[in-house]
């Protein structure tokens, strides 16, 4: 790995094994979820970074979300919609909370959450489509 320091990626420095690179972002969003009683709740968030399979959101307001809770993540409509990743232009994204950040002493709620986006990654979609095309040709 003989690259100049300016060209190193985050994964080169931290030895993280990621399937896709994170894209830094700072977009207002909303998380909608149901609590243990079935009441619909929502939190205002700032989407800080996104990858193909995950996102980190910073909690702006709302109640604490329990670990492993299913949530819907949505970016707020804005003038800079074309700068959003394609995934967020489609609307709500079903996600699961898999990491809860440190608690804020003033509010007692977490600073942020790590979300696993429950979407089919592009690589798997392309790989799954290939056998179907071959099968279609074989049966034609």
What key phrases describe this protein's structure?
single chain; 140 residues; alpha+beta; Thrombin, subunit H; 6-stranded antiparallel barrel; 6 strands; globular
How would you portray this structure in words?
There is one protein chain. This protein has 140 residues and is of the alpha+beta class. It has a single domain, classed as Thrombin, subunit H (Beta Barrel), CATH 2.40.10. It has 3 helices and 6 strands; from the N terminus they run H-E-E-E-E-H-E-E-H. It has helices at 10-14, 86-89, 122-139; strands at residues 23-34, 40-50, 54-61, 70-75, 93-100, 112-117. It has a 6-stranded antiparallel beta barrel. A hairpin with a 5-residue loop joins strand 1 and strand 2. The N and C termini lie far apart (49 Å).
CATH topology label: Thrombin, subunit H
- Write the element-wise H/E pattern from the N-terminal end onward: HEEEEHEEH
Radius of gyration: 18 Å
Largest sheet data: 6 strands, antiparallel, barrel
Q: Cα distance, first to last residue?
A: 49 Å
Q: Using the alpha-carbon principal axes, give the shape.
A: globular
Strand segment tally: 6
In total, the number of domains comes to 1
Q: Strand-residue fraction?
A: 35-45%
SS-based class? alpha+beta
- The parts where pLDDT drops under 50 for at least 5 residues are 124-128
Strands of the biggest beta sheet: in what spatial order? 1-2-3-6-5-4
CATH superfamily: predicted glycosyltransferase like domains
Helix content: 10-25%
The oligomeric state of the chains shown is single chain
Helices and strands, with pairings:
Blueprint lengths: L9 H5 L8 E12 L5 E11 L3 E8 L8 E6 L10 H4 L3 E8 L11 E6 L4 H18 L1
């Amino acid at each position: 790995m003989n690259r100049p320091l300016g060209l190193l990626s985050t994964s080169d420095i931290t030895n993280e094994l990621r399937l896709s690179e994170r894209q830094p972002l700072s977009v207002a969003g909303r998380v909608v979820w149901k609590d243990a009683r079935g009441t619909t709740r929502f939190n205002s968030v700032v989407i800080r970074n996104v990858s193909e399979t995950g996102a980190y959101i910073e909690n702006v307001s709302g109640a604490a979300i329990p670990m492993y809770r299913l949530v819907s993540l949505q970016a707020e409509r804005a003038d800079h919609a074309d700068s959003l990743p394609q995934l967020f232009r489609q609307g709500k994204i079903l996600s699961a909370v898999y990491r809860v950040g440190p608690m804020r002493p003033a509010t007692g709620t977490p600073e942020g959450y790590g979300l696993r986006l429950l979407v089919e990654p592009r690589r798997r979609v392309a790989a799954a489509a290939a056998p179907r095309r071959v099968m279609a040709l074989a049966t034609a």
